[in-house]
Structures are given as C-alpha cells and as structure tokens.
Amino acid sequence: MSQFSSKYDYILAGGGLSGQMMALELQRIASTDARILIIDRDTKAQNDRTWSYWSTDRTLSDQLARKIWSNIYVRKGDFEKTMSIAPYHYATIRGIDFYNFSKEKIKADARFEWIQEEIQSVNAEQGVVKTSAKSYAGELIFKSYFDPKEISIPSENIMVYQQFKGWFVKTEEPIFDDKTVTFMDFTTLEKTHETRFFYVLPFSKTEALVEYTAFAETLLEEAVFDQHLEWYFKEKLPATQFEIEETEFDFIPMTDFPFPDNLSRTGFGRVNKKVVNIGTTAAFVKASTGYCFTRTQEKIRQIGKTLEQRGKVAESDFASPIHYRIFDSAMLDATGRGGVRGDDFFTSLFKKMPIDFLFRFLDEKASLYEIIRTMLSVPNKGKLINSTFRKLLKMSKL
Ligand SMILES: Cc1cc2nc3c(=O)[nH]c(=O)nc-3n(C[C@H](O)[C@H](O)[C@H](O)COP(=O)(O)OP(=O)(O)OC[C@H]3O[C@@H](n4cnc5c(N)ncnc54)[C@H](O)[C@@H]3O)c2cc1C
C-alpha cells in the first residue's frame, strides 16, 4: 500500500448518473467499516442534464421528479395519436435534483470520500486509479468516466449520434397541454433520410422543454437545431411571445460498440477482478433509443445484489439478453445505413402495438417470439431482417 496515497475497498471512477447510483447501492451493501472513494473532475453542482424515463415504479420519481405525466402524443403526417400510458408513467428528473439527493446521503455517511480530480488512467491489473494529483488503490473499481469524443468505432460497429437542442421556455399564452408529453412529432421543416423529430415536455400550460432531435452518423451544426425550433414555435405550436430561460445542446452516443479495453485503456473487457465498467461504458445506454436512466437503475441494482450475494460481479449479471443486443444492433444498422426510415418504423409501432407492450419491449422484457412478431409488423421488414442476419453473422463482435 505504501506506493499509493490511499487504499479503498471501492473506488467510483466517475460520479455521474451510474457512479452516484452505484454509490447509493454501496451505501446499502458495504460493511460498516468500508472505505469508499468517488472521483469526478466535476463538482456535479450544476444542472448538466435532465433525465426522462417511463416506469411503473414510483419510488424515485415520487421523490425527485420535476413532473410526472400519464399521456403521450405521437404525430407523423396525417397520423396523430394521444395515448394513456397506464400502467406506466413518464417522468422527468433534473440532474441537479438527483445529484443533490445522492450527495446529501453520501455526505452523511462517514464511509464515503468525494474528491474532485481529473482521472488519467485505471490500471486493471493493480486496481489503481491514477489522477492528475495522486494514485488511489481499490479492491474494486467501478469505472464510468469516459470522453465520448474519444470513441473510435470499428467499421463492423455502428455509431449514431442522438443529437438534440432543447429550449426551456416560458410563454405568455397558455399554449401547452400540461397533461401530455409530445413523445415524437415527425412534422419537420425539411425532408431528410435521417430520423428527426420534435419532443415537448410541458411542465405547465406556459412552461416547457421543446427539443429538436436528430439521429445521424455525423454531428450537425447547432444552427440547424435553432432553425427548426424557430420554425416549430412559429408554425406548429404556435407561439410568438416567449422567453428562452435555458438551453440544452448535447448528444447521446447510440452504438452497438461493446466498449472493450481500447476505449477504457484498462487492458480488459467490461468486467475483471478489479474493475467493473458501468454506465455508458458498459452499454447501459440502449443502442436503439438512447434511453439509459431506468436501465442504469436496474443494472446497478443487479450488480449490488450479486455483489452482496457472491462478493464479486460478472458481466452476465447485468448484460442485456443477446437477442435484444442483436435487435438493437439490427435496428441501428437498418435505420442508419439499411434504408429503413426511423419515422415510419416508430410510427408503425405506435399505430399497431399496445403501449404497455411497446414499453415492455423497449425495456427488454418481451419474449423472443414477441420481438420476432414486432419485427414482422414494421414497414421495410425485409431490410430489418437483412440487417439482423448481417449482425448474426458477426455475432462474436457483439
Ligand atoms: C444532455 C443529456 C440528456 C440526456 N437525457 C436522457 C434522458 O432523458 N433519458 C435517459 O434515459 N438518458 C438520457 N441521457 C443519456 C444518459 O442517461 C446519460 O448520459 C447518463 O448521464 C449516463 O450516465 P453515465 O454514468 O454513463 O455518465 P455520466 O452521467 O456522464 O457520468 C460520467 C462522469 O464522469 C466524469 N468524468 C468524465 N471524464 C472524467 C475524467 N477524466 N476524470 C474525472 N471524471 C471524469 C464526468 O464529470 C461525469 O460526472 C442523456 C444524456 C445527455 C448528455
């Protein structure tokens, strides 16, 4: 231990969503004399993102949600549908509210230490995290830090950027239906082969987050998003008198890339004796939708449970079932390169499938038979099936 500044039972390398969820789980399962270190370069004192998710479980959302809705709206051309999503609800949590909740719990627990340092590397053989200031040794390291701009995707994998710009607005007139989330509005200013849509979270009749989202293989200019948002406000909502209180411009990497050692530079897969990758670096972001919040909560609970029962974690304890990984990969391939239009695909699901099935399917809880039935019901199913076979042939890469 002498060569290291300090030794810990657990180190959380990255203290964002998955790091802090893992910290809360360790708080439940770690021994009373455990030493737990969280390292993040940021203080997590800013509202750096807003997470939305659907769920049937009210525990977290009851405490922290900014708003909970029970209806969603979908539109494409002449088709429009407002649906109740019971037994699910759709909720939004501001990042800062989750960070404050979690940091308060951690602060009150003497087993935890939080340091703000830039991580340079994780050594999986020795179980050491090296920062710009020191080296820290840990019995088990949960690694979630990474720079999405550093990902270099091999040609057999697909990377689609889910890019979005959102305006948090306040309008003079009551123009929003505050009971209903606009989940996907494919009414767009210009025709494009990419999947693009508007998304509206109405916090009240006069307050909302209005977002323009694009799934694309290359990053688009911010001006494209502003142009579309201006058009939507003028022509579609419509609203002329409004104030933009905050903006959000970012992207979520949607990929079937398995995030192995070349990204983490740790010389191992996602899990070894000393290091467990969690969060985006362990494919917690669902490749076909970009959603991650509920999956992170569920996968962290699974990791906590097996750690409590067996004292160690294996990748199979929390990896998504193989048929869902193939489906996600085929979906990305088909909508990204294979000629299936995302607007046709998603609208057809909303037209044909009961909403509770759809959410269950996206939550990876539907059976293989149900997946095949769903794939056969969508337009251009030939192209989707084609992509599936291509992925099956490369299965070893998944
Ligand atoms: C703007 C935005 C909105 C999103 N909205 C949704 C949504 O509505 N619903 C949903 O399900 N998903 C959403 N996502 C996707 C996903 O839920 C989030 O990206 C989620 O935060 C991923 O969790 P994570 O722990 O993998 O990464 P993060 O939460 O990003 O945590 C990684 C942490 O590592 C730290 N870090 C990085 N590099 C270093 C370094 N070198 N040294 C030290 N620390 C470092 C960062 O400061 C960060 O705190 C959104 C993503 C973004 C970017």
Detailed description of the structure:
The protein is of the alpha/beta class and 398 residues long. It has three domains: 6-50 and 93-153 and 256-317, FAD/NAD(P)-binding domain, CATH 3.50.50.60; 159-254; 322-397. Helices cover 32% and strands 29% of the residues. The chain has eleven helices and 17 strands. The protein has helices spanning 17-29, 59-64, 95-107, 222-236, 261-264, 293-310, 322-336, 342-352, 355-362, 368-377, 381-393, and strands at 6-13, 36-40, 50-55, 67-69, 71-76, 79-84, 89-94, 112-116, 119-123, 128-131, 135-143, 159-171, 180-185, 195-202, 207-216, 242-255, 275-277. The strands form three sheets. Strands 1, 2, 8, 9, 10, 11 and 17 form a seven-stranded mixed sheet that branches. Strands 6-5-13-14-15-12-16 form a seven-stranded mixed sheet, sandwiched between helices. The longest helix has 18 residues, at 293-310. Bound molecules: flavin-adenine dinucleotide. Flavin-adenine dinucleotide is lined by residues 14-19, 39-42, 44, 49, 51-53, 118-119, 144-145, 147, 248, 250, 252, 279-280, 285, 291-293.
The N- and C-terminal alpha carbons lie at a distance of 38 Å
- Output mean pLDDT: 88
> Could you say what the CATH topology of the largest domain is called?
FAD/NAD(P)-binding domain
SSE string: EHEEHEEEEHEEEEEEEEHEHEHHHHHH
- What is the alpha-carbon Rg in Å? 22 Å
Q: Domains counted in the coordinates: how many? A: 3
Task: Identify every distinct bound molecule in the structure, by name, code or SMILES.
Answer: flavin-adenine dinucleotide
User: Tell me about the biggest sheet?
Assistant: 7 strands, mixed
